[in-house]
């Protein structure tokens, strides 16, 4: 249909985005449903544009349990649905008008123009925002009345697709500045640096936390409440022509990224590891990949199918028809389920984390009317009935896992008689790179495989790979290349199926490239502690989980590095609170920083000494460490009583009038007679009194 389109600027909306629909009817209140889900409900709103409807589907039961028509003024426009709990919004991308659906009655309760083309609407954690990606305007709106809340903020346009994290903070990428800007309510927070101005930035909310992929520098920044973690990605990420494709939302901590030529990268933000997988895929148009459980779902718009790659098995599962060839495939991850919808199709798909799939008939008329009656949760939804390849056939669809398969129309090989290459995946840690592979299911008419070998990027066997080869009948295996340096180098490999061609000579059927650094980004240091010393602090911490880790230490006015788990910091001012931050780093990236504060309080280290050198006269006390400051009492002649010395400081030079050899610029801050005063160190029995030097037993005052 001509009213459907995709463009980079408005291709994604938010965690609650369901789909694009074209509508051409005016009906109110056809069926009712509620977004006020009970714990047993796992549902989503889906567009059903062929009949001008929006429907609510229960994912566990695999059935529609409510539907409503959309208003006439939206007829023929590009509409998107944004949902978050009781907030359900229809966004007209052509006019910038946003309408709210009352989820309990399914009636339009209000509409309001909030922008124009390039508008993104987001809802989450009870808040709603509009982001004008073209003009750079960010505006919080009331999710019920759709009216502005506070003043709009203007950022440097064009903006990247924004997202809302688990804490309700809106994050807006600003590629021209190389930063991502947070908003809480209508207030703008301090921008977070991601890369250089002009870098290609893409945002994913993974497990509720922002992850910004910099496709220019091949890095990813994970933003957490305690700080940021930077993870280096394989170098080929930077060579993707239009940047890697990432989903708007990831259900867990793994962020999938699709690069050129079937290069798939799986960033595990929990442990800082990046897996590189070389998928043998057709040269089709793909939407961003999604991960749920152990499977990666790749929407193939060219074929209209959903390609399913099992990461644990390193194998393809049978593709699933999602739409007609060239049609629209919308994917939503919500409530630990993955929803696949063709806005104009009659069937939607709901996948659970185990790979089970429900086929939902969107136009089923047998749905509850009036007040919504939630469908019961089944212990085994679908009962295992239906076609295990996801084709349906049982009530509610299939709960089975699709079997192993091959992607449609695999790429043409240079030698049609060569066996299909294996599928490799690479990851690094501990100074080595492991390349695991799974042999392909061979088509008829190809030469038999004689062995599997690991090749370098130039196509030569890798010396030192362990093992050197795998037999032809293996079901898969792992090559290990050790003795590598943990730095930013991406080590590129491929796995080949070796065979004998028609000339009898050995030949290779090579996989695509996979690459990894020889280590993973380190975890944070643990148990950071600071012990104050005079003008400094001794820091200790537990080792990071990473390999070949260096620690960066920072404090106000200084930085240092350490290879071990301790560091002494000197040159600090006493009488202040200092904050120390330790960040672990290696060649694969850096950890989230950890911090500790320590107050250098001289009074906590005060000592008691006696007076002396007061035999012939009274000794004046002062309000400061100088003879020019006002006098504040005195030690009486012959005073040898106890004095509490709080700290010491350099002041005026004092020479005793009776004994000219007693000279000092050291002054003691003392507590005497119930008051704090100052006296020359000559007249107190500190260890350095007679030598005119500071005493190691006392701290400096500042």
TrEMBL record:
Keywords: Carbohydrate metabolism, Glycosidase, Hydrolase, Membrane, Polysaccharide degradation, Transmembrane, Transmembrane helix
Biased composition range(s): Gly residues: 381-399
Amino acid composition bias (Polar residues), ranges on this chain: 616-631
Disulfide bond found in the keyword field: no
Domain Fibronectin type-III: 521-604
GO MF annotation, one: hydrolase activity, acting on glycosyl bonds
Region (Disordered): 362-441, 611-635
Keyword Zinc: no
Parts of the chain that traverse the membrane: 12-31
Top-rank lineage group of the source organism: Bacteria
InterPro entries assigned: FN3_dom (IPR003961), FN3_sf (IPR036116), Ig-like_fold (IPR013783)
GO terms, biological process: polysaccharide catabolic process
CDD domains xrefs: FN3
The protein's name in its UniProt record: Fibronectin type-III domain-containing protein
Species of the source: Actinomadura syzygii
């Amino acid at each position: 249909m001509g009213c459907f389109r995709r463009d980079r600027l408005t291709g994604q909306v938010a965690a609650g985005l369901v789909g694009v629909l074209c509508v051409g009817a005016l009906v109110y209140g056809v069926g009712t449903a509620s977004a006020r889900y009970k714990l047993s409900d796992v549902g989503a709103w889906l567009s059903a544009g062929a009949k001008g409807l929006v429907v609510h589907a229960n994912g566990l039961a695999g059935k529609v349990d409510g539907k409503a028509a959309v208003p006439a003024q939206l007829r023929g426009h590009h509409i998107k649905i944004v949902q978050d709990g009781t907030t359900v919004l229809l966004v007209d991308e052509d006019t910038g008008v946003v309408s709210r659906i009352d989820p309990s009655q399914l009636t339009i309760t209000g509409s309001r123009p909030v922008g124009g083309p390039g508008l993104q609407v987001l809802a989450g954690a009870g808040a709603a925002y509009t982001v004008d990606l073209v003009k750079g305007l960010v505006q919080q709106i009331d999710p019920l009345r759709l009216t502005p809340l506070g003043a709009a903020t203007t950022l440097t346009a064009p903006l990247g697709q924004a997202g809302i994290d688990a804490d309700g903070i809106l994050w807006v990428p600003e590629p021209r500045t190389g930063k991502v800007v947070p908003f809480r309510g209508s207030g703008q927070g301090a921008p977070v640096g991601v890369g250089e101005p002009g870098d290609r930035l893409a945002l994913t909310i993974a497990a509720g936390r922002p992850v910004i992929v910099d496709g220019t520098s091949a890095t990813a920044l994970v933003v957490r409440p305690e700080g940021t973690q930077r993870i280096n990605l394989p170098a080929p990420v930077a060579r993707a022509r239009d940047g890697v494709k990432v989903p708007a939302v990831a259900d867990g901590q793994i962020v999938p990224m699709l690069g050129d030529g079937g290069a798939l990268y799986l960033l595990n933000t929990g442990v800082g590891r990046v897996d590189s997988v070389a998928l043998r895929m057709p040269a089709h148009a793909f939407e961003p990949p999604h991960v749920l459980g152990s499977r990666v779902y790749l929407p193939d718009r060219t074929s209209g199918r959903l390609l399913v790659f099992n990461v644990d098995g390193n194998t393809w599962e049978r593709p699933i028809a999602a739409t007609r060839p060239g049609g629209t495939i919308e994917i939503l991850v919500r409530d630990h389920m993955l929803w696949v919808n063709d806005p104009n199709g009659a069937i939607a798909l709901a996948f659970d984390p185990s790979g089970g799939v429900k086929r939902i008939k969107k136009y089923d008329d047998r749905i509850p009317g009036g007040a919504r009656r939630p469908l019961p949760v089944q212990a085994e939804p679908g009962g295992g009935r239906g076609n295990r390849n996801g084709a349906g056939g049982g009530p509610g669809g299939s709960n089975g896992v699709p079997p192993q398969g091959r992607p449609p129309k695999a790429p043409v090989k240079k030698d049609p008689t060569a066996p299909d290459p294996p599928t490799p995946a690479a990851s690094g840690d501990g100074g080595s790179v492991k390349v695991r592979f799974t042999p392909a299911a061979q088509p008829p008419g190809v030469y038999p495989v004689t062995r599997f070998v690991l090749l370098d990027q130039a196509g030569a066997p890798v010396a030192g790979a362990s093992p050197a080869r795998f037999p032809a009948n293996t079901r898969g295996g792992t090559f290990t290349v050790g003795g590598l340096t943990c730095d930013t180098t991406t080590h590129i490999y491929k796995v080949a199926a070796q065979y004998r061609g028609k000339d009898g000579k050995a030949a290779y059927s090579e996989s695509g490239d996979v690459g990894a650094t020889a280590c993973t980004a380190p975890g944070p240091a643990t148990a950071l502690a600071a012990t104050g010393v005079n003008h400094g602090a001794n820091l200790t911490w537990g080792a990071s989980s990473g390999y070949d880790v260096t620690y960066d230490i920072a404090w106000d006015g200084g930085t240092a590095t350490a290879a071990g788990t301790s560091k002494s910091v000197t040159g600090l001012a006493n009488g202040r609170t200092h904050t120390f931050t330790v960040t672990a780093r290696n060649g694969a990236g850096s950890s989230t920083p950890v911090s500790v504060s320590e107050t250098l309080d001289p009074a906590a280290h005060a000592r008691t000494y006696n007076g002396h050198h007061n035999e012939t006269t009274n000794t004046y006390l002062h309000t400061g460490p100088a003879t020019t400051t006002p006098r504040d009492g005195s030690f009486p002649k012959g005073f040898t009583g106890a004095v509490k010395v709080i700290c010491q400081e350099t002041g005026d030079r004092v020479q005793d009038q009776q004994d000219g050899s007693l000279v000092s610029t050291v002054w003691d801050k003392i507590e005497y007679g119930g008051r704090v005063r100052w006296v020359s160190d000559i007249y107190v029995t500190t260890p350095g009194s007679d030598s005119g030097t500071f005493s190691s037993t006392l701290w400096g005052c500042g």
